[in-house]
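Intended use. Records like the one below are meant for learning the mapping from a protein sequence to its folded structure. Do not use them to infer anything beyond what is encoded.
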Amino acid sequence: MSNTHKNQLSVEKIGGTSMSDYPAVRDNIILYPESPYQRIFVVSAYGGITNDLLEHKKTDQPGVYGLFANDDVEDDWRIALDQLSLKLNKINADLFDDDELRAKANAFIDERFAETKQLLNHLQDLCRHGHFSLESHLLTVRELLASLGEAHSAWNLAHLLQQEGVNARFVDLTGWQADKTLPLDEMIKAHLGDVDFTRVLPIVTGYAHCQENLMHTFDRGYSEMTFSRIAVLCEATEAVIHKEYHLSSADPKLVGEENVVPIGKTNYDIADQLANLGMEAVHPKAAQGLRQAQIPLRIKNTFDPGHHGTIFTEDYVSEFPQVEIIAGMQHLIALEVFDQEMMGQQGHYEKILIDTSNRLKCQVITKDFNANTITLYLSASLKKVKRLSEQLQQALPTATINTSKVALASAMGSDMRIKGLLAKAVQTLFDEGINVEAIHQNTRQVEMQFFVNETDFEKAVKALHSKLIEVHNHGKAICEH
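Structure written out for the chain above:
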């Protein structure tokens, strides 16, 4: 399948917070600047709905899936599912003025909720028998529940746009009641292969049911993988993600709205560095597909449609060496393994550390080592790190293992080969009374990482942003002092 018309074709993803504001989506995205055609939209569930279906992304508070999987109180998941069904009907009531269309919208999502409830009831009954394990079905349950959010938002958006005179088509990749499961690429071709993009606007579910089981590999990043593959298969000239904010030089909540600047242009290398810190502009695997197909990615602010946003390309390097972003992570744990017997065996020790961390799902942000010490910088709960320490101590009985709470402040740029920049950054932190506990910079020079006490995180980000970004005019070289 390809862009047979060879016109400008953009594949665009709309995030959940943006989806919750239909007038902004209609006026600032779909009908902006002119024609809605030669575009494909992949949509997320409305803001917060996937949290309610699965679990809260930040707090881990269980949603319907979490309650079903734990099954602590048998009726909890049913109550949560019923409450969520009412919540989606309330969203429909706010969106549809037309009584007939609102009734259709409710009927569509109510049917899916009713069937889902029935399926989960049957599965729960089945797994009370010893021959069937609930654990082996949980990924399917997770995918089934996740699909409800995007089916709801995509159906609604397509029908709302039809009311506005747009020839929108609801494209359901959720595999609902499908006879067989196809590979992702085949699924996309089957649903989009015959669409004339010059006259039809596809509104596609972010969740796609396929043989690859996207949630198994990408979990909550599944919609970006769907978006990326559609862009590649349709030979898009551009991929666009619409968010509720600009991708800026720092978090405006930390350094002040008046001090940040939209990044404008950078490369996929920086997208990877951001993803490593949990600040995904796009999922790394989704970015990989776009990069290999040489499709530029644009991040746009839904609520500032006139701004060109930030463009990621494969080969962009800033005209002058400069720092583009100050980012970081506040709650990290440094796990230090010291052993006099490590000398000459660092590879063996490192494999044990990394394999054990991965098994316990402790995310390794970065690591360093010398002759007899390896330190992992982890994003994980204290409980998980305690288990990790115990298992490492059993595997490495002669080692001494220590943990400490740290934060990471990171300076990034597509080209930071500036003489004295590292010294300037360290001096900036010293002037603020911040002790640097570890530093990382490799020869690629697209990122400098400073590990500090977690209580100094906000102060470190503000100071680095003030001295490395705010002091110069973007597009001009940083003056060397």
